[in-house]
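Problem: given the chain below (355 residues), write out its structure.
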Amino acid sequence: MMSRVVGAVQRRLLALMIICYLLAAVAPRPGEAMRAMALGSGSPVKVPMVLLAVMLSTAGLGVRIRDLRTVAGRPLRLASGVAMNALLPVVLLPVAAMCLRAWPDAAEVECLAVGLLLVLAMPIAGGAASWGQNAGGNVPLVVAMVVGSTLLSPVTVPWGLTVSAALVGPGGARSLDDTARLDGLAGTAGAGAFALALIVLPSLAGILGRAILGERRAARIAPVIKLANIVNILLLCYLNASGALGQALSPPDLDFLALAVGVAGAVCCLSFLVGRWMSRWTRCDTPDGISLTFATGMNNTSAAAVLATSWFAHRPQVLVPILAYSLLQKLAASLFGTRPPSPTVAPVVSPPAPS
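Solution.
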């Protein structure tokens, strides 16, 4: 019974996320209050950070050590997916920045550039494993890519922020007038510490928890964990959207919203196309190609949103492209899940939305 409920909710996850966004636009005050709550007086740990850590620890419960061992003999394929994901901000953000130079509002361009930079710098989303599995991919490979990207995030995230900010800053595409805040975020007390504390450690805790529980116990509690994780994801969506959408819609800034959705959608599709091109260039077989496509195309947007609310609370419009990317990423995953990575592969069935 529980498995059926979880399956039904998963299939409607995208619609439920849209409802959370609409609720955040109409009634943002409860979300703003919860987002500002700390675990203790003067504590820097906020509720969204806790929800993100819980989400990643439950995702870690789905990782089996034996899946990681099966890809140990193919390190080049694994390294190509992790490296391509880490290079995404350097490859795609300057292209987007050059296209945005004609936009008349420089402040809006900065918000878009920062939001996309935060998304592209994040590690591979755990949902890539679910989408890859439903599309017929090599599940152990994509799981290993997710874990590898997560473990390296304290290094790759600050590096991506630093290099990309230099490429689109005053000395590059000039989409950013000042990169001081991004440089501070890339420092030792910024993105690196954030990735270690809220991405790496919770994920490792989940993986270790599954090893302690054993496969039978983990399988028994899996439906309950999945349902709790879906509720956690939806609450995090509402909290991240509270305030940002309200300010973007009051008064309605339809031009900026349309631009954010268009640019986020274009960058999202380009990231999937880069993964598909990599799968063809490296001559992957069908399952490996699907895994590489999803690993390259999907980033942890929840982590990007939490980081944005922590460092760019004074500019809530930075969250708008991140929220748009989060929805469009799932639409793109469903689209690319119906097409093969090479002309010789038969089409696979479009997957339902994963948790």
